[in-house]
Design goal:
The structure is a single chain. The chain is an alpha/beta fold and about 325 residues long. The protein is about 35% helix and about 15% strand. Helix 5 links the parallel strand 5 and strand 6. Helix 1 packs across helix 7, helix 6 packs across helix 8 and helix 8 packs across helix 10. It is globular, with a radius of gyration of 19 Å. The model has no long low-confidence stretch (mean pLDDT about 95).
Length: about 325
């Protein structure tokens, strides 16, 4: 990957899980980074010292435009969103309105300010159709299975029009299950409430929560539980930076994953190996809409950028997450 030093980036949602790791990756490469976040789900403590922070809600177009107008930005990366699939099924209009309007506002502000590059944190939730290939590549049919996935697809469509009308080139990264934590321990995963399997299993092992629920043990998989593609959050961050190098003259969309699937029970086994503790769990009914297997085909970004996961082994992903959660029992509230 070609690296240009001393560039200037604006990261929306940079106080959140993936966004904060992208901020660290950019800083590690010698770039200047500014963060815009409303802190509805992010944490001020996740923003490193020395990084300019704008406490702004993207739903406020004028406030958003004021920040963007402070450019020159070499690129804007957009991570800010509400992102719970299950919640979006219960509050579809809220998810569609919030994610669509905030996405529209930041893209419009960038277009009018003359920003040339835009990185978008999209999602594998675009691929919710019943006939998903295994693994899932970029040519798979886009058929969102939730309002959350639909809202992300709408932003991808906004970006296509921004390219056509303003020449704003974008990289849409549709990643699967981001997990783990910064290997140097500078950032980690702290959702309120936590819904992701790896931190939930770790907290169960540490006795911080009741027995872990495994939703469905009768799937047509090797052990009866769901299989998902887990990719280290540091690898996801690196993928965003690599993708920006590809959009000098064209927009791109890449699927981001580890390329291999791990079952819910294999997550439990990994947490037990890493922690030395048993993970209490109990079976629960399947959740509506949960497919048996979701695995990413990331060969396109690997071929075009040279990106590849550095932390491929499940225990590497879990170990980094375990170290951060053990050191931060209250997350960023410590």
């Amino acid at each position: 990957m070609k690296v240009t030093l001393g560039m200037r980036y604006l990261v929306t949602g940079g106080a959140g899980f993936v966004g904060s790791h992208v901020v660290l990756a950019l800083l590690d490469q010698g770039h200047e980074v500014c963060v815009l976040d409303n802190l509805s789900t992010g944490h001020r403590a996740a923003v490193p010292e020395g990084v300019t922070f704008h406490h702004v809600d993207l739903i406020d177009y004028q406030a958003t435009k004021n920040v963007v107008s402070q450019g020159r930005w070499d690129a804007v990366l957009h991570f800010a969103a509400i992102s719970l699939v299950g919640d979006s099924m219960q509050a579809p209009f809220h998810y569609l309105r919030q994610n669509y309007l905030t996405g529209l506002n930041i893209v419009q502000a960038c277009s009018e300010a003359g920003v040339r590059k835009f990185g978008f944190s999209s999602t594998a939730a675009l691929f919710g159709g019943p006939e998903r290939p295994d693994p899932i590549g970029e040519t798979a049919e886009i058929q969102p299975g939730s309002p959350y996935g639909e809202s992300k697809f709408l932003i991808e469509r906004i970006l296509q029009w921004a390219d056509s009308a303003y020449g704003l080139k974008s990289a849409c990264l549709r990643y699967f299950n981001a997990a783990g934590s910064d290997v140097a321990g500078r950032a980690g995963e702290d959702h309120r409430p936590e819904t992701h399997l790896v931190p939930l299993a770790i907290d169960a092992a540490l006795g911080r929560r009741p027995a872990l629920k495994i939703f469905g043990t009768d799937y047509p998989t090797r052990d009866g539980s769901c299989i998902r593609d887990y990719v280290h959050v540091a690898d996801v961050a690196e993928a965003h930076i690599c993708a920006l190098e590809q959009i000098e003259t064209r927009s791109v969309a890449y699927n981001i994953g580890n390329g291999r699937g791990y079952s819910n029970f294999e997550i439990i086994q990994s947490v037990e190996r890493v922690s030395g503790c048993k993970v209490p769990w109990k079976a629960a009914p399947r959740r509506q809409g949960d497919p048996a297997v979701l695995i990413a085909d990331s060969t396109t970004i690997q071929r075009e950028t040279g990106w590849a996961p550095k932390f491929e082994k499940l225990d590497q992903i879990v170990e980094s997450a375990f170290r951060w959660r053990k050191a931060h029992p209250n997350g960023y509230g410590d």
